[in-house]
Amino acid sequence: MNVIFVLCDSLRPDHLGCYGNTTVQTPNFDRLSQLGVTFENAYLSSAPCMPARRDIWTGRYEFPWRGWGPLEQSDVDLPGVLQNAGVKTALITDHYHLFEHGSGNYHYHFDTWEFIRGHENDRWINDPTIPITWPAPSYEKCHIRWDQYFQNTAQWRDGLRWRSESDAFAAQVFTSAAEWVSHHHTEDPFFLLIDCFDPHEPFDPPPPYDTMYASEIPEARIRWPIYGTADRYTEAEIKDIRALYAGKVTLTDTWFGHFLDRVERLGLLDNTMIILTADHGHILGERGMIGKPGAHHGDSNLYEQIARIPCIVYHPDFKNQDLRPLQLVQLVDFFPTILETLNILPPENVALHGGSLIPLVQDSNAQIRDVACFAKYGEGVGISDGRWTLFQWPSGETNQPLYWYSVLQPEFLKPKNLGPFDPTQKRYPVGTVRGPNTSSLFDLDTDPGQIQNLLDVHPEQTVRLRDHLRAFFNRIDAPPEQQERLGL
After folding, report:
1. Is residue 367 in some structural domain?
2. Other CB atoms within 10 Å distance of the CB of residue 308
3. For 2, phi and psi rounded to 5 degrees?
4. Could you read off the pLDDT of 224-255 as tens digits, one per residue?
5. Which domain holds residue 476?
């Protein structure tokens, strides 16, 4: 048996046909859904990009201990376990955070890896002779990092217009992946991880995807909106941002489809599990917000637009069953799922926080957890049973005590007021990291947009979910001060 793991950054399930969207064209993601199993209640674990990847790589929640960073020397990571078991491992990606200072060692234990350069703020091209064409006024409506991205991609475009969609990053990633499986499909077992940065911003798809969902195109298109409040954008600009994002989703689907065609022609559907998921979603104007807002942006709850992720699993033993399990699953579950599929025992020296998805496919009554818990380090914690979602925040402004558990100082999204390293506990004390939020409770059945706070209306649900949150922290042996700072 082989495993192909496809991770698409910022892919919202509500933009896929297989999750009920009737507007955005995703025939190839939908085809995989029809072939396999589509989990209806999948959530991220730790946010944002790199914390989510550490959850996947280690099978353990990161957010109670630290935030964005590299793998620790003590981490037992999935590619390393597979490599030691004799599985051929490969990584194909344009996700530059895997390689940059402050997080860049996630490729270490792959037998081979390919890094496709130039996406977002990848520090690749530095040519002052390239004239920068801004899609919108810089520093006002378009992210200031556009200049680096534009230099990276200028070789493939005329001004703002891409010459060919085959040069787009999703196309390059899935074309490279198709070539890899063509050369290695007989090397059973293998594990191929495709980490595709699309549809992450910049929302800059080539034709025809750039106009596919746009009814009216503003004079200046916001291809890289700034995180935080959406009030800097007009209603027409918000609508166009959504159109550009949808276009990038369809672009990603198209080139995933070319890859899936190659997999099918090679006969790999007979002996290969394929997992398609995302690290998180992206807010596109809902609740008056844009992006994945953090504490410094204001409202930083991990609402459904961010917390929900697609989770589609194709397995040769369960194909064409059109299963849609309702159990709660999270990113930490992929580590044990892949090990079980490849008949590899879990490592004895590490306690995995997730569980294999295979029993959920075999038995509709089986479950891994009663609730899903998710958070950004140092902020509030979201907990959901699939209907009720509680965001538990510290009371008051202190958010203490809080520690960063690592021998390495944070380099990206760095907490303020980092204290001296404590070598006995291997941690740094951290000052306040939080937004202005207070605890809130939402009923997803009656209020899927999470607008009406029912914390005082349904205290019994609040008490129940807080009990679950205490049990969660105890189960994973989280630092005890997490419960203290959250008022639990």
Report:
1. no
2. 24
3. -115, 165
4. 999 998 999 999 999 999 999 999 999 999 99
5. 372-485
